[in-house]
Amino acid sequence: MTASGPVIDARGLRKVYRMGEVDVEALAGVDFRMEQGEFTCMMGASGSGKSTLLNIIGCLDRPTSGLYELLGRRIDSMDDSELAAIRNRFVGFVFQTFNLLARASAVENVELPLVYARVPGRERRERAMEGLERVGLADRAGHRPNQMSGGERQRVAIARALVTRPALLLADEPTGNLDSRTGGMILDLFRELHEEGNTILLVTHDSGVASSAKRLVRIRDGRIESDSAR
Amino acid sequence: MRPPEVILSALWAMRSNRMRTALASLGVLIGVSAVVSLVGLVTGIRNYIRDQFDTVLGARVFEISRYSGGFEDLDSWLESRRWPDLTVDQARELAGLMTTAGGVTWRSGSGGRVTFGDRTVESVRIRALAPSETDVAGFAIGTGRFFTHAEDAARARVCILGSDLAETLGTPAGLIGGDVTVQGYRFTVIGIARPLGSIFGHGLDDFVAVPWSTWSELLSDGRDEVEIAVLPREEVGLEECREEARLVLRRIRGVPFQAPDNFYITTQQGILDSMQKVMAGAAAITIGIAAISLLVGGIGIMNIMLVSVTERTREIGTRRAMGARRRDIVRQFLAEALIISLAGGFLGLLVGYALTIAAERLTPVPAAVSPFAAVLAVSFSAATGLVFGVFPAWKAAGMDPVEALRYE
To answer: For residue range B314-332, what is the model confidence (pLDDT) as tens digits?
Structure first.
């Protein structure tokens, strides 16, 4: 992790999908920067391009054109296994549908990124347990996802995203599948994580959630419509 | 991911789908058990043949006959029908001319009824043998003695009984020196042969042996056809003796220069070789069956793996987001295919061994557990898993992580 410089530095990002005969421009030239320790909310209707942007920022996808640097590293020209390594080391994902492995216990789920980081078994287990403790689920380590509530599952997923101590935490509608009370608890957790120094980019539909953020970015038709930081 | 973790993760995925995993490996299990038991059968029969030849025939004795000891094609069989008979005169001449032979004898035979006192045995093999100092008769004497040249020359009515026949008729003590009736002629029993056992389940000890000249006079159907057995002198090699016999017999039978032989010389090795040819054919069929059953088993595994890949699209997307490279995904699914097929292969090996042992114990079919089959089973099932696991694994790894995460 570099001590200075932006975490995200994207310029002129374009993403074009070919749908049959027509080209669909999901991103039409996006400039976006995020500094270390920021907590940014991103809003936009479905089809606005926010998911595409999030995927590129999370190194799951590559832009058609444009320049993207994550922690000063050029991402747009990396190959598949380099991207995998970047995701593993620097990015933590939290999904709307949790995406926990159904057959694995909570602690095994949290260990997953460390498996691909080739962390030895014992250290892996220790770090995963620390992660579960951080989200208050140490007593649920042996439970499987289907034995836990939605809120607990999302906390396991957050522990999993944090276990590699990533430079960037990406959350794609993390409260979308939760009731408002549980969702509120998850948001409180994100705020705490932010206070602890994590850099967080959170995508949401909920304007109530968005209003509490320090910085709000609105996406529309593949462009940044407004950015409270500007 | 490290290799042990790949295996653990594969086992863990299979644990949750036990029924499906079991069914997927069933094809390989059946295939491998079929291969193992067939290999056991082929091995057993091969050993059995080898043992039979070792015990029954003298290793160095070779036979000359108008009939091939092996398996010939129809044309050469028809050709051999036209060859002149191999006569006792030719045999006598051969015996007189050969320098490398330690013993030359000739034999013939027919079938008939043997009676002793009030006991009668039908369809006994009557073996007509020339007297011989050396052991080229095809059996050894247990009690009593062999017939002499004088007895043969005098067409003496003496005989030697096979051990089974002797047992059916009476006791050795009661038989030796006694008279049996062969096809209505009275013969004095002078000896009882040592048991030979059986070959391919066929008893060899129900014969009566008589001097060739006596047989020719009383029991032959008039044809003078014989089979010649030659034992090389101890210091002479089998090949040298055999070649001499061939050349001398060609001269005796007036075979023109460069014309092919009009007789067959069969060595024990020759018989073994032609048996081995048959066994090699059986082995080829076995391998064919193996290939087909493992193909079917492999397709079963591929099918299950493809279903599994589709079902676990989200999991693949999640793993990719957490930093799994394409090759990690390939390894994961290949390991699963490999473990399924190896499990099938291992169980198939056990089932195949059980079938082999059962066949050996419960049926007259000789079967032998072969360590070669184990190597075969493991390598075949591993190969099946790899070959048929590659495509599903490749498909899983080729998924776009974004699409995979969005998959419903």
So the answer is: 999 999 999 999 999 999 9
Stronger pLDDT, B57 or B26, i.e. the higher one: B26
Amino acid at A123: E
Q: What is the ipTM of this complex?
A: 0.94
Which of B100, B78, B63, B74 minimizes the C-alpha distance to B270? B63
Sequence letter at residue B40: G
Give the DSSP per-residue string, B159-213: EEE-HHHHHHH--HHHHTT-EEEETTEEEEEEEEEPP--EETTEES--EEEEEHH
pLDDT, tens only, B118-166: 888 888 889 888 877 556 667 788 888 888 888 888 999 999 999 888 8
What would the two tokens of residue B214 be?
A: 């006596």
Rounded CA separation A5/B125 (Å): 106
- B400 CB neighbours in chain A (<8 A) are 61
Residue B393: predicted pLDDT: 95
Mean pLDDT confidence for B168-174: 79
B89 burial (CB, 10 Å; 0-12 / 13-18 / 19+) is exposed
B320 touches chain A (CB under 8 A): yes
* Residue B203 or B394, more confident: B394
Angstrom distance (rounded) from CA A199 to CA A171? 11
Window A:161-180, CB contacts with B under 8 Å:
164
Distance CA B371, CA B204 (A): 33
A93–chain B Cβ distance below 8 A for any pair: yes
B186 pLDDT above the threshold of 80: yes
Would you list the domain boundaries of chain A? 8-227
Question: What is the distance in angstroms between the Cα of A230 and the nearest Cα belonging to chain B?
Answer: 30
Contact B326 A61 (CB under 8 A): no
Per the document, the length of chain B is: 408
Q: Which residue has the higher pLDDT, A10 or B167?
A: A10
- The H helix count followed by the E strand count for chain B is 14, 12
Distance of alpha carbon B251 from alpha carbon B10, whole angstroms: 76
- Note the CATH number of domain A8-227: 3.40.50.300
C-alpha span between B169 and B188 (Å, rounded)? 14
Pick the more confident residue, B121 or A130.
Answer: A130
Closest residue to B322, CB basis, from A55, A61, A112:
A112
With CB atoms and an 8 Å threshold, state whether A81 touches B326: yes
List of chain A residues whose C-beta atoms are within 8 Å of the C-beta of residue B314: 99
Task: Please report the pLDDT score of residue B136 as a whole number.
Answer: 65
Question: Quick one: DSSP state of residue A136?
Answer: T
Q: Please tell me the predicted confidence (pLDDT) of residue A1.
A: 47
- Cite the beta strand spans of B226-292 per DSSP E: 227-232, 264-266
